[in-house]
Amino acid sequence: MNSETRYGALRESAFHYAGEQNNTTIIITKYDIIAHTMTFAHISTKPIAPIYPTSNTCLLLLNCQFGYHDLAAWSSSSPPSVSNPAFDANIAALLATFRAAKAKHTNPADRPLIIHVQTRPPWTDHPLHVSKVGPWGEVDPATGRHVEVRNIDFLECAVPYTKDWRTGEFGFCKSFDEPDMETWMPPPPDLNAPVRTEMISTSHTHSIWINTPLEKLLTDRKIRTLIIAGMSLEGTISTAVRMGHDLALTGNFCDIGNEEDADSRDLETDGVTVFVQDKDGKELVNMTRIVLVGDATQAYGTADVAAEIVRKVHLASLREFAEVRRTDEVLSAFLQ
Q: N or C of the chain: less Cβ packing under 10 Å?
């Protein structure tokens, strides 16, 4: 069965599942039992399947914020250390590729989705609290020193292009603040929004899925391929991937999830979703494909473990929950 045929079949499955909401209690319980038995590990060892630049594909960039430059706040090694010096360049490459794909679609409904997650913790001593600033900006020619910027603001490699809710104008949004949700009334959708418009989702906990609209947004868009990058790997990224895997396995985002017991070694992907079929072609598993871009993440050294080893260990453990790939693999698979 080719990808185009499967794509139509999956759409029917998604709508059928949506119509069976009242009969899912027992099935959900079953999902919860087997959710930890499925593994993506062997998929990551195969040549990467295509990534389709459609409205069902999403690039999710987590916490690309200046506060993560404060190594002393995140690393207990001496001196404080962080892995992967290619992080900024790889994030920029992913973002540029997705933006180019968005620009080729005249119909907004056909464009791949770009979502930037900004963490805004409520704890005043947290490195990403809104009150924290640091010398992370550009160098001031007059003083030769880096300009102080807010820790919660976006890194230069990952500045969202979106609509400023305060002014109503579109542009690159380096510094973002939440509106007061008790008094602010969201405007109606802007049908004339620029092609390049991206989304920002804020989070106040360790998980991007808790008390945020992200799960509903991805489900409404029927996201079939979710590409995750950002930081920190051992914190937000790990939590997002593991819980995202369970959400996909229980039928969230686009498909039926884990309909029947299956051998995880039979999991495969055609670039649209991840699935298992029996010998008669019946789908036992059909879930969103989650791709973690391993070299577009960073981890921090500890008193006993070097930063790069921390990164490699976490990536190895996350192969159970996502297809782990390099940036160059993702870019080569992205069909322009």
A: C
With CA atoms as reference, report the closest residue to 264 among 319, 326, 335.
319
> What's the burial of 154, exposed, middle or buried (CB within 10 Å: 0-12/13-18/19+)?
buried
> Taking Cα atoms as reference points, which of 260, 257, 233, 230 lies closest to residue 245?
257
Would you state the structure tokens that stand for residue 15, as one six-digit string?
């709508």
CA 223 remoteness from chain centre: 11
3-333 fold: Rossmann fold (3.40.50)
CB atoms within 10 A of CB 304: 9
Measured CA to CA, the distance from residue 137 to residue 123 in angstroms comes to 24
pLDDT tens-digit map of 233-284: 999 999 999 999 999 888 888 767 777 788 777 778 877 788 788 888 888 8
pTM over 0.70, yes/no: yes
Reading the block at residue 47, the tokens are 């040549």
How many angstroms separate the CA atoms of 70 and 228, rounded? 23
Residue position matching structure tokens 């106040």:
204
Question: Residue 185 has which token pair?
Answer: 């009334």
Kindly tell me the sign of the dihedral angle through the C-alpha atoms of 314, 132, 78, 87: positive
pLDDT digit string, tens, across residues 64-121: 999 999 999 999 999 999 999 999 999 999 999 999 998 887 777 788 999 999 999 9
CB neighbourhood size of 14 (10 A)? 18
